[in-house]
């Protein structure tokens, strides 16, 4: 990588919008010369706004979204070669997605370094604003290094503006990388405010920095320190709380709510939207998604009825009990859909707000309702037409379970799937509660505080409280299953199974979290897709070969080419 510095504020400045939806919309018609970027409050603020844009539109967009979720136990990609190559163990260090993931996170890091250096002892910028903007820059630098560390392990540390010829830098140890992350989040927590006025809603807060500091300690298994940080967010001056409706955090009209700790900000303006719908949306979405991510059928065994009882999956109709040919397939399909309709009732409310099961409807294209049937081809012209799923629906039928979470409804997304206005929450208060519960349980066992945190989330989902008297290991499993149900498709579960060091287990050892499983569709039929996760290799991505070609000091992670 050539670490030549670019000032993001000048590259991503957009014309001022007639209607300011958030602070990212407020920008002048013309760029500001680089010699004047830190000469006053307004210009310095623009520079930091650019870091937000770089994070939302580069580091945390593609391939972060279209790779990470598909690698976890909650999802898979049906038809996307790049994501499949990684999840099936066939990827190499030359994969474009891995290269882009690596380099994309360095862009906001370099811009943050410029801001930190430009504001240091700079009396042209108001002191209070200077401190806050520095805190925002350090938050993003820590955030990007947090993800680089969890993907690649040892990485190159850039903590100041680098000269153009600073190409050959070695990887730093995990200890040094995590020390920088912790330092940045601590400094950000001290400098950032608890909240902002509505015009600046979505900026990084002290609560966001504390949450990420606690998460860093959690990933390092420093349980008491993680507990201490998360505990701060459960009391004044912080007022985080769960929304009454689980789905409010994933719908663009109800985002930035009391549950939001930090979310990437998007609008449906050109160049300002999320690509979540593009990659994960079904084909009957308002503007047509590409449906490259599907819900794993393990969800059907994880979610329970509200009384805590499991769905009896053994009663699902089997195809071999019906006549051959299309007539038999249609009869089988009707019974299959009826089984879903009758089996998944009175459920944990998060299930139907996260996925679209057979028999369920979705409000999509042309402001019409679509339904998941089997077989698809027999219901294309039904009164409630068949919901279109993958590109392969007609030539290679598959009973995939589409994602409902994060999707717009009807024709709300007026441009295209790449301009989805739905924010992406990197930290929600529900996640904070579960991380707090995990840290406390690991440090002190299943004390009342652990039960309180988990049951608070279960109450919203309208399911019974956890059983009393759980042991430490039982509570550990309960928290992990709760994370699955609460955080599907939010990218966390892939990192969870890695930090728990259980991703390499076989399905016999762990039928929920194993990443060595045959992928099944909603008929429980194999899709001829098998996830592969090698213990000796796959806990880290490879350092991109293209980067090693440029920099001979970069070593490779174990057992990668």
TrEMBL record:
<dbReference type="GO" id="GO:0009279">
    <property type="term" value="C:cell outer membrane"/>
</dbReference>
<keyword id="KW-0732">Signal</keyword>
<dbReference type="Pfam" id="PF07980">
    <property type="entry name" value="SusD_RagB"/>
</dbReference>
<dbReference type="InterPro" id="IPR012944">
    <property type="entry name" value="SusD_RagB_dom"/>
</dbReference>
<feature type="signal peptide">
    <location>
        <begin position="1"/>
        <end position="18"/>
    </location>
</feature>
<feature type="domain" description="SusD-like N-terminal">
    <location>
        <begin position="23"/>
        <end position="218"/>
    </location>
</feature>
<keyword id="KW-0998">Cell outer membrane</keyword>
<dbReference type="Pfam" id="PF14322">
    <property type="entry name" value="SusD-like_3"/>
</dbReference>
<protein>
    <submittedName>
        <fullName>Starch-binding associating with outer membrane</fullName>
    </submittedName>
</protein>
<dbReference type="InterPro" id="IPR033985">
    <property type="entry name" value="SusD-like_N"/>
</dbReference>
<feature type="domain" description="RagB/SusD">
    <location>
        <begin position="258"/>
        <end position="560"/>
    </location>
</feature>
<keyword id="KW-0472">Membrane</keyword>
<comment type="similarity">
    <text>Belongs to the SusD family.</text>
</comment>
<dbReference type="InterPro" id="IPR011990">
    <property type="entry name" value="TPR-like_helical_dom_sf"/>
</dbReference>
């Amino acid at each position: 990588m050539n670490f030549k510095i670019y000032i993001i504020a000048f590259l991503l400045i957009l014309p001022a919008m007639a209607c300011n939806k958030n602070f990212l919309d407020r920008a002048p018609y013309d760029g500001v010369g680089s010699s004047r970027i830190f000469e006053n409050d307004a210009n310095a603020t623009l520079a930091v706004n650019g870091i937000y844009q770089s994070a939302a539109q580069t580091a945390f967009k593609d391939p972060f979204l279209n790779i990470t979720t598909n690698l976890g136990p909650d999802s898979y990609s049906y038809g996307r070669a790049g994501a499949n190559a990684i999840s099936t163990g066939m990827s190499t260090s030359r994969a474009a997605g891995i290269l882009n993931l690596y380099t994309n996170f360095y862009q906001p890091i370099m811009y943050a370094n410029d801001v930190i250096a430009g504001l240091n002892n700079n009396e042209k910028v108001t002191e209070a604003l200077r401190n806050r903007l520095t805190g925002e820059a350090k938050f993003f630098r820590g955030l990007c290094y947090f993800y680089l560390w969890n993907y690649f392990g040892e990485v190159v540390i850039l903590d100041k503006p680098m000269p153009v010829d600073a190409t050959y830098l070695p990887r730093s140890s995990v200890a040094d990388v995590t020390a920088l992350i912790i330092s940045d989040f601590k400094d950000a927590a001290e400098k950032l405010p608890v909240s902002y006025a509505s015009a600046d809603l979505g900026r990084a807060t002290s609560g966001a920095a504390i949450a990420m500091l606690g998460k860093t300690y959690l990933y390092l298994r420093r349980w008491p320190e993680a507990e201490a940080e998360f505990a701060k967010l459960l009391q004044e001056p912080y007022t985080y709380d769960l929304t009454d409706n689980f789905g409010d955090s994933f719908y663009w009209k109800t985002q930035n709510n009391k549950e939001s700790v930090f979310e990437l900000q998007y609008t449906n303006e050109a160049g300002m939207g999320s690509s979540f719908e593009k990659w994960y949306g079904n084909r009957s979405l308002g503007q047509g998604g590409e449906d490259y991510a599907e819900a794993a059928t393990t969800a059907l065994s994880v979610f329970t009825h509200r009384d805590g009882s499991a769905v009896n999956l053994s009663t699902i109709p089997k195809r071999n009990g019906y006549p051959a040919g299309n007539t038999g397939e249609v009869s089988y399909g009707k019974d299959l859909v009826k089984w879903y309709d009758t089996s998944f009732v009175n459920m944990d409310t998060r299930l139907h707000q996260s996925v679209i099961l057979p028999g369920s409807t979705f409000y999509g294209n042309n402001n019409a309702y679509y339904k998941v049937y089997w077989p698809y081809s027999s219901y294309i012209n039904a009164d409630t037409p068949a919901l279109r799923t993958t590109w392969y629906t007609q030539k290679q039928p598959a009973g995939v379970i589409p994602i409902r979470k994060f999707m717009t409804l009807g024709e709300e997304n007026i441009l295209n799937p790449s301009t989805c206005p739905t924010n992406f929450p990197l930290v929600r208060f529900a996640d904070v509660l579960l991380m707090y519960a995990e840290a406390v349980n690991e440090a002190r066992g299943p004390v009342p505080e652990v039960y309180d945190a988990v049951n608070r989330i279960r109450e919203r989902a309208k399911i019974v409280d956890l059983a009393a008297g759980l042991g430490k290991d039982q509570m550990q499993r309960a928290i992990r299953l709760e994370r699955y149900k609460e955080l599907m498709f939010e990218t966390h579960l892939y990192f969870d199974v890695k930090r728990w060091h259980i991703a390499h287990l076989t399905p016999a050892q762990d039928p929920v979290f194993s990443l060595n499983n045959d992928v099944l569709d909603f008929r429980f039929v194999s899709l001829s897709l098998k996830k592969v996760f090698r213990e000796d290799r796959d806990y880290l991505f490879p350092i991109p070969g293209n980067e090693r070609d440029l920099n001979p000091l970069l070593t490779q992670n174990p057992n990668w080419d």
